[in-house]
Write a structure and sequence with these properties.
Length: 546
């Protein structure tokens, strides 16, 4: 049980946490879809409510350095756990730097497995240095080590990014990597890219939003079905020419081969490493490799392989069974301690972010704590620039109903809009997406008042706040060859807001802006609003009680 606060009994009604995914506070309004949006509710909140800035990137959320942007996993982990753990990106980099990854049983089984079969080791993963799901340097280190340990053949299945890195940057990764593979190959070692495609088109679906993506990835990587090219650089160039305006994340799948023969199908006896460290978009393809009674699509052929993930992606489901680096052991989350203290909890989002407010929130666990209720609003399966409002209205409906039920002491939701539409690089759509969230807030807040509650309105990292690549010196948008602004699809390094919406305390409650204030301070703040002391492990509360 959390201890009761002696100085404050807690607010009479529920405490609501609203995460506006991808809503950062930019240094300049140039290129900010948030600044361009008409958002009277948020404008009023910033003008009239206590509000501060929180760090949401870099070491404040467990990333290796302050040059690393934040992301949903590390952001929701930090919010939910009230603590900062070294995250996958940092853990894998550390395990490679000190060599412990090669000593681990999983790596040794992978190498032994490959050698015992046809000698083929496959790597599948996101092919960039975005450091959100993966890092190409980790892949490079594994290829070098595989050669040193006597693996004969390496085949890479490269998911093109353009979402955590500039939108048409694929060749900046592909060309040097294909050169590196050519250089490291010799008569005893043959390393090549074997297949690939845009990450939003194959393999990296999440939260079961669209299994067809995973099926398309399986056909490409495992079965080697699809259009063939002589090299990945050639594939990217040809596909771009054929699909003008298509950015890397949406490029169609391709197979490397000649005369109808793919160079790297996945066969019995091969070893496979899925080298993304982040779990949400790794779980479905992992299930396809591991589950004997898999029924999400027809695999046609199920090769018997030795499979490992970079990390274990779900601790409750133990998925995958074999993993190269142990994930952060996230303990003592607010979900767990509120449950132990009898605080009922409601969590809601649409499919695209549903796991963010459940699985990431609870430290990458898929199981519920007692007293938790989850509601998923099914996401549309469309390019989100075509529906920038996404399911904001339906999430507002669900939150309003849950609030009115009076059953929950704390409620949380995530509005995907600023992030998912921000990732498309479409400025006008991103502007609309922020306006949709504003409308949803306008509907939810009066119900919170009516229930005697308060809200903390925040974000997990920036995205819609910078929709153009800005010149580092002039801070003006970079231009494409045709004079248009170069769209930015990735997250930003900007801080995020924390707004306290409170019409019940009569001005008694405020927020402290501290030097280190970050997402990991939210859990303790929520506990105080509920009338509890924070858990000893949690970072300080930012609540001021006057
Ligand atoms: O997976 C994605 O969509 C992006 O790589 C990161 O976005 P998220 O961290 O907001 O989910
Ligand atoms: Mn996010
Ligand atoms: Mn995002």
């Amino acid at each position: 049980m959390l201890q009761k606060l002696s100085s404050f009994p807690g607010v009479p009604g529920p405490v609501v946490i609203i995460v506006m995914d991808g809503y950062g506070l930019p240094k300049t309004d140039v290129g900010s879809a948030i600044a361009a949006a008409r958002k009277p509710t948020l404008d009023k909140l910033f003008a009239t409510c206590p509000n501060i800035r929180l760090k949401a990137h870099g070491t404040a959320v467990g990333m290796p350095s302050d040059d690393d942007m934040g992301n949903s996993e590390v952001g929701h982990n930090a919010i939910g756990a009230g603590q900062v753990y070294a995250q996958g990106a940092a853990l894998v980099a550390g395990a490679i730097a000190d060599g412990s990854i090669w000593q681990g049983q999983a790596w040794q089984e992978i190498v032994a497995g490959a050698k015992a079969g046809r000698g083929v080791l496959h790597f599948i993963g996101l092919f960039s240095d975005g450091n959100v799901h993966s890092h190409i340097d980790h892949l490079k280190a594994m290829v070098v080590q595989a050669k040193a340990e006597g693996v004969k053949t390496v085949r890479i299945h490269a998911l093109l990014d353009g979402r955590d890195v500039p939108e048409t940057s694929a060749l900046e990764y592909v060309e040097p990597f294909e050169a590196f593979l050519a250089e490291i190959s010799d008569p005893s070692f043959d390393a090549r890219i074997a297949s690939g495609g845009g990450r939003q088109v194959i393999t990296m679906d999440r939260y079961e939003a669209n299994w067809a993506l995973v099926e398309a990835g399986w056909k490409t990587h495992v079965l080697g079905q699809g259009e063939q090219f002589a090299s990945t650089a050639e594939a990217v160039k040809a596909l771009r020419q054929r699909h003008p305006g298509t950015i890397d994340q949406d490029l169609p799948p391709f197979v490397i081969g000649a005369n109808g023969q793919p160079v790297g199908t996945i066969e019995d006896g091969d070893a496979v490493v899925f080298y993304n460290f982040r779990g949400d978009r790794a779980i479905e393809i992992t299930r396809a490799f591991e589950e004997a009674d898999f029924d999400k699509f027809d695999r046609i052929r199920m090769p018997k392989v030795i499979y490992a993930g970079m990390l274990q992606y779900d601790g409750d489901l133990q998925l995958p069974k074999r993993f190269l680096v142990a994930p952060p052991a996230i303990k003592d989350t607010m979900g767990e301690w509120f449950a132990k203290s009898g605080v009922t909890q409601f969590a809601c989002s649409e499919t695209q972010k549903f796991g963010h407010v459940t699985y990431f929130w609870n430290g990458n666990r898929s199981g519920k704590f007692e007293g938790e209720t989850y509601q998923e609003v099914p996401s549309d399966v469309v390019p989100f620039e075509q529906r920038p409002w996404m399911k904001s209205a339906e999430i507002a409906d669900a939150m309003i109903a849950a609030l009115k039920s009076g059953q929950y002491k704390t409620l949380r939701c995530n509005f995907a809009n600023g992030d998912m539409v921000g990732h498309t690089g479409n400025f006008r759509a991103a502007t609309l997406s922020v306006e949709a969230v504003d409308l949803a807030l306008e509907r939810i807040l009066p119900v919170i008042d009516a229930m005697g509650g308060v809200a903390l309105i925040t974000a997990d990292h920036g995205n819609a706040d910078e929709m153009f690549e800005l010149d580092k010196k002039t801070k003006q948008p970079q231009l494409n060859a045709d004079g248009s602004f170069k769209a930015k699809t990735a997250h930003t390094l900007n801080p995020v807001p924390l707004i306290l919406y409170d019409n019940v305390s009569g001005g008694k409650l405020g927020l402290k802006q501290t030097e280190s204030a970050g997402l990991s301070n939210i859990a303790a703040t929520v506990a105080n609003l509920l009338g509890y002391e924070k858990h000893a492990k949690w970072d300080e509360s930012l609540l001021q009680i006057r």
